[in-house]
Design goal:
The chain is mainly alpha-helical and about 240 residues long. It has one domain. Helix content is about 60%, strand content about 10%. It is built from 8 helices and 3 strands, in the order ααββααααβαα. Strand 1 and strand 2 form a beta hairpin. Keywords: Glycoprotein, Membrane, Transmembrane, Transmembrane helix. This is SYPL1 protein.
């Protein structure tokens, strides 16, 4: 009986299914497909990043020792500690050194939005391809799509600029300026030199994809709006004497 119940629930959906992949060649379907792909790239370029920053330290009993601090998404840098120069901690003058700043909220906002947009695009593509006839007849679906598209465009705008600001701060918190904030490097007989930090070009790309997503969704608002009664009503008002 579970299979019978499942068949009863699913059968109306299957009966109304009319597959039409030609929708993907139309502006609304093609833009939605691009939004799906760009959401994947935004998610991957930010959420998949791993890097490290390195210092060259000389202190008591240690000469030119490379120490590193590895960091990654979600960029809670205040939990990232440099490896000690030696087991004795430079004769007791070296204490744990943490990076500064917690940028997890900005990064997670950006990545979570990308993941939700990815899922929504899949659902929208299913409707466009399989139930386009229902979508065109039911104006409620179009109005819902319009509302979600406008909200998504706004969220891409906010999340991208918030993430871009966080990325700029991450570069500062992992760059050469960190030397001045390390008390252990100011101990007598201790010298620290900034060595390197992993390139964050891929994170710059994530910001670009955020901006592209914002532009795509803003264009999507216009495409959906043209199919709604709102656009038709406005045309009738402007054309009336």
């Amino acid at each position: 009986w579970p299979w019978f119940l499942l068949a009863v629930l699913v059968s109306p959906v299957i009966v109304g299914l009319r597959m039409d992949f030609g929708v993907l060649l139309e502006p609304l379907g093609f833009v939605k497909l691009l939004e799906w792909v760009f959401a994947i790239f935004a998610f991957a370029t930010c959420g998949g990043f791993q890097g490290e920053t390195a210092l060259l330290v000389s202190c008591k009993g240690v000469v030119n020792k490379t120490i590193t601090a590895a960091f990654a998404y979600p960029f809670s840098l205040n939990t990232v500690v440099f490896s000690a120069p030696d087991p004795k901690g430079c004769g007791g003058t070296w204490t744990d050194v943490y990076l500064t700043g917690d940028f997890s909220s900005s990064a997670q906002f950006f990545v979570t939005l990308a993941a939700l947009v990815f899922l929504y695009c899949i659902a929208a593509l299913v409707v466009y391809i399989g139930y386009n006839h229902v979508y065109q007849q039911e104006k409620r679906f179009q109005l819902t799509d319009l509302t979600i598209s406008a909200l998504t465009a706004f969220l891409w705008l906010v999340s991208t600029f918030v993430w871009a600001k966080a990325l700029a701060d991450i570069k500062v918190s992992t760059g050469a300026s960190i030397i001045s904030g390390i008390e252990s490097c100011k101990a007598p007989g201790t010298t620290c030199h900034f060595l390197s930090v992993t390139s964050m070009g891929i994170l710059n790309v994530s910001v670009v994809f955020g901006l592209l997503n914002m532009i795509l969704w803003a264009g999507n608002v216009w495409l959906v709006y043209k199919d709604t009664n709102l656009h038709n009503q406005w045309n009738r008002i402007t054309e009336s004497p």
